[in-house]
Amino acid sequence: MLFAEFDNPTTHSIPSIGPTLTREFLSGVEASARSLLSRLSVQERSGARTDIEAQPDVRALNSLALRSLVSLFDEKEQLFSHRVMLTGDGLPWDATSRKRTIIALLGLHRLAESGGSIPFDLASIREEVLRDSSWVTNVGELGLLTWFAAVCTPDRLETVFKQFDFEKVLSAYPDGRQARTTGLAWFLAGIAHARLACPEGLPDLTDVAVDAYHLLKDNQSDSGLFGHAALPGFPRETLYNRLGSFTDQIYAIYALSIFARAFQVEEPLESALGCANAVCSLQGEMGQWWFLYDKRTTRVVTPYPVFSAHQDGTAPCGLLALEEVTGRSFQRAIFKGLSWITGANELGEDLRNLDRGLIWHSIGPRRRITNYWKTVLGVMNISHGPQAESLRIRYEARPDHAGWLLYAFGKFGLPNTAMAAKAATAR
Fold this sequence. Notes:
Number of domains: 1
Shape: globular
CATH topology: Glycosyltransferase
Helix content: 40-55%
Structural class: mainly alpha
Strand order of the largest sheet: 4-5-6
Largest sheet: 3 strands, antiparallel
CATH class: Mainly Alpha
Oligomer: single chain
């Protein structure tokens, strides 16, 4: 495989960042910290926008996501299934997943705050998730757990901070030592949400937050794009460092936006805007958020698979978070991505299955080896566009997809009470 050489990189310690630099950074006296918002033009901050709340399709997507979660819920275990996949025998469940349940709960919490009717006992599911934290095996998962506690049950944050030594996790877990972008982003977002939820009474994690921020920023090139991992101390540039997935880009955008908001600093917004502008400029003609990017050349090297969860979930989450703190509108790109879901895509197929109450997973190559060679050719800048006949829909659905969708749009509620009732009776 393309990344096999770096699957088990040598462990290296992360570079230390002194407390003096940390305090300077947060006090706003670092030389590169500038007043970003004052440099955004009036047109960029308050120009013509698409009013998301006025779009009926957004509320319909919320309803569909809710129905999807009903289909994926295991009442006995009080957790959501890892996924369901369409087979000749129907839609069998995989085992349940605490991690994916947490993401589903983030979305359901956002929908519940809007007044939407929720056909679940959220308190019981939260208790089941928090009953066991043995699934936390890396920095990113700890960040996600902290994020969840801060947003959904802030009274449990103190317990999380007692369970884990946050000051040491960046060197204790492999994804911290390797400076993996998505793991760092989830961790930084978790700390930022904890600070927003409980500004007083929790441990001061300023230093470790800034350490995570600098490690994350070191993965970003001048183009604005992020690589997948820095692998500090590795003797040469690797493809892990040079190439980054859309997941790496969008979680970094979200984390930098929330970090800036929680710690009242503006420098991270420059990095977030640089990445957002880069991925938006590379967005496909049909609104596709492509799979893999080359931060050195600012190109897409592997377009497929294109994930539905990115189109209607994680991309809106990250871009709307950045829009909220900067006033810069990304709604045109967001709605272009949503149209891909509803049939304006390479196959001309609506990925929403209204009968089953699901949104199918992705469109990608029929053969995995095809994607391998696409990456090789893409890095060599001799890649060619795919033909529709080489693509297929992946007929599966996951709870984290519905969770990110609701986390992005849940605050806008459901179309009407009848749709919520339909979701409840589908159980």
